[in-house]
């Protein structure tokens, strides 16, 4: 096996059979390959593969011990295919493999099928195992990088694995002698078990199994093709299906196989626009349709550019190429005509109506119109968030409260009303899009279908409820004996409702992870009103406390925004990082009593809303004074 250590400039010169002076000149003129790193003294170093690649590319003599493929001669004819087919992988998966005879040495080309979560190391090991044992020494496995349609073009590299040409040496069964001065430090039982004068060699780092290949970086497609005498196929991500790969393998033609586009954003974009046209969105919701049309035109432009990248190159070709995007005539005309400026007030009105229509629609795994409605809502919210937050943040987000327990949890659940399948959002077998968003924690339609999120949620579902404010709540089993059940709650992102008083307490149960944060307010008769979820206006809740960090900072952020009625106040950088964590901090920074309460509260959290408002005003004034002092 070739040496894998790094080479200094002097060692580079010896491997290249050049004078050190000449090599220093080339290095100064930046005519050497880029170094792979630096040594402890900061000097540039190169791997043997980098040196050998440069020697081959510049027409210089390659060392006899050069790694594959740099030391192998150019093929005089196309390499013979020794075997082609599928190999078995763990968990019932498979991969496509072609074994070539590359200058008398097996070269295994392997590609995993789409949708299979299998590591490339596993594929390489299984591919080597397909060879007869006597053919494995020196064999190599190459796996292409899957191409991204949104990239600047094909990436003509393959990842490389190598088997040693000589078997790994068998460890000496006789361990080294242990010096007597060290043996006395062993426990008595170890001294009795260890032979006298013997020390076992330590095993350091991850050990490669003798029958497994070792990863050797990447190699240009042109270098593989030079040894094989034929170009190698590259693949768009998402096209490596068994059907397409079988067709490409059987035809064995060095040009792209035309296929339907299932990998870019275009099919989903045009399906949404077409469904919107079929349901007259362009007349009923013109502001929303204009945004959909603008995004669809952008998708057409971007995908057209991506699919016009070269399909062949030096030593490679694209195995399968999606068809370029095509406009249905009416859709293109409507999309061009919809290029209007946004009317914020009209758009906000459309947002309210669209949100209701989309929420009440029955969910189906393949529903282009439902997808179009949801996408239009997200586009409208994105455009209006800065100018109309009070209209945008009327929608909830799904909040997962795992291991939900404690007196606050019990009080909240006491006010929930159970739903039956007769309720519009109470039938999990025929769920609305709103209910599905709750059960799948706001996942996209594609993710819900692909990962069977709704199926999994139904298996754990105990009951569906509605809280006093009309928000949906789902009760799911935890799935673990030592945990309490999970609650999925439609959590508000708006400003807090009217009704919080000086007697209101911000409360949370003792927790070891995320928890529900509620406002507890006594009524005029002294009885507690139903607990109200504390929103993080304009953002998502991720509530924890009792320590410093990002999640407790979200509690701080939410309370500041609620107290000030400011959607953008208390970003992590501009508030928490400028406030001293401890009262005795000597860095001349203002001290936040609110932050101190959040990070030091152990067990349950109880904060007076009146105190929270006072502490927030103190923080606001302190930061204002600090800005004034800096001027």
UniProtKB/TrEMBL annotation:
Superkingdom of the organism of origin: Bacteria
Protein name (Swiss-Prot/TrEMBL): Uncharacterized protein
């Amino acid at each position: 096996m070739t040496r894998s250590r790094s080479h200094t400039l002097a060692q580079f010169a010896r491997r290249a059979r050049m004078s050190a002076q000449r090599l220093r000149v080339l290095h100064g003129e930046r005519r050497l390959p880029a170094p792979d790193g630096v040594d402890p003294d900061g000097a540039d170093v190169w791997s043997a593969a980098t040196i050998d690649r440069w020697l081959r590319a510049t027409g210089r003599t390659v060392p006899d011990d050069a790694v594959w493929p740099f030391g192998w001669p150019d093929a005089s004819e196309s390499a013979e295919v020794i075997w082609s087919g599928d190999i078995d992988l763990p968990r019932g998966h498979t991969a496509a493999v072609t074994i070539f005879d590359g200058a008398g040495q097996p070269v295994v080309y392997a590609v995993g099928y789409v949708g299979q979560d299998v590591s490339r190391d596993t594929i390489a090991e299984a591919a080597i195992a397909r060879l007869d044992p006597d053919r494995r020494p020196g064999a190599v496995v190459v796996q292409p990088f899957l191409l991204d349609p949104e990239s600047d073009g094909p990436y003509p590299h393959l990842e490389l694995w190598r088997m040693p040409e000589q078997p790994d040496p068998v460890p000496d069964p006789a361990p080294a002698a242990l010096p007597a001065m060290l043996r006395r430090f062993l426990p008595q039982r170890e001294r009795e078990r260890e032979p006298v004068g013997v020390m076992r060699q330590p095993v350091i780092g991850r050990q490669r199994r003798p029958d497994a290949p070792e990863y050797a970086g990447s190699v240009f497609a042109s270098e593989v093709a030079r040894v094989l005498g034929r170009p190698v196929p590259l693949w768009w991500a998402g096209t490596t299906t068994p059907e397409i790969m079988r067709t490409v393998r059987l035809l064995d033609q060095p040009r792209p196989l035309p296929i339907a586009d299932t990998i870019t954003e275009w099919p989903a974009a045009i399906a949404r626009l077409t469904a919107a046209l079929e349901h007259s969105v362009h007349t009923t919701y013109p502001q929303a349709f204009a945004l959909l049309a603008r995004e669809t035109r952008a998708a057409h432009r971007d995908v057209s550019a991506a699919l016009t990248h070269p399909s062949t190159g030096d030593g490679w070709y694209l195995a399968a190429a999606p068809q370029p995007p095509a406009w249905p005539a009416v859709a293109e005309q409507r999309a061009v005509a919809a290029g209007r400026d946004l009317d914020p007030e009209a758009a906000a009105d459309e947002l309210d109506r669209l949100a209701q229509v989309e929420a009440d629609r029955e969910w189906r795994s393949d529903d282009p119109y439902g997808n179009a409605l949801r996408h239009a809502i997200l586009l409208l919210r994105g455009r209006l968030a800065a100018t109309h937050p009070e209209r945008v943040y009327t929608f909830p987000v799904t909040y997962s409260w795992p291991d939900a327990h404690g007196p606050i949890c019990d009080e909240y659940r006491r006010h929930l009303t159970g739903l039956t399948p007769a309720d519009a959002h109470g039938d999990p077998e025929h769920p609305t899009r709103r209910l599905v968003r709750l059960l799948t924690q706001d996942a996209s339609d594609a993710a819900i279908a692909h990962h069977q999120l709704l199926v999994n949620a139904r298996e754990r579902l105990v009951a569906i409820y509605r809280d006093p404010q009309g928000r949906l709540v789902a009760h799911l089993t935890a799935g673990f004996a030592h945990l309490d059940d999970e609650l999925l709650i439609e959590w508000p992102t708006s400003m807090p409702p009217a009704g919080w008083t000086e007697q209101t307490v911000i409360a949370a149960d003792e927790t070891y992870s995320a928890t529900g944060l509620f406002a507890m307010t006594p009524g005029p008769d002294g009885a507690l009103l139903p607990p109200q979820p504390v929103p993080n206006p304009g953002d998502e809740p991720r509530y924890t406390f009792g320590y410093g960090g990002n999640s407790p900072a979200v509690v701080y952020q939410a309370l500041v925004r609620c107290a000030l009625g400011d959607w953008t106040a208390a970003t992590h950088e501009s508030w928490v990082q400028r406030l001293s964590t401890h009262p005795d901090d000597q860095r001349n920074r203002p001290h936040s009593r609110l932050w101190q309460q959040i990070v030091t509260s152990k067990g349950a959290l109880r904060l007076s809303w009146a105190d929270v408002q006072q502490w927030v005003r103190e923080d606001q004034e302190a930061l204002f004074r600090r800005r004034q002092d800096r001027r």
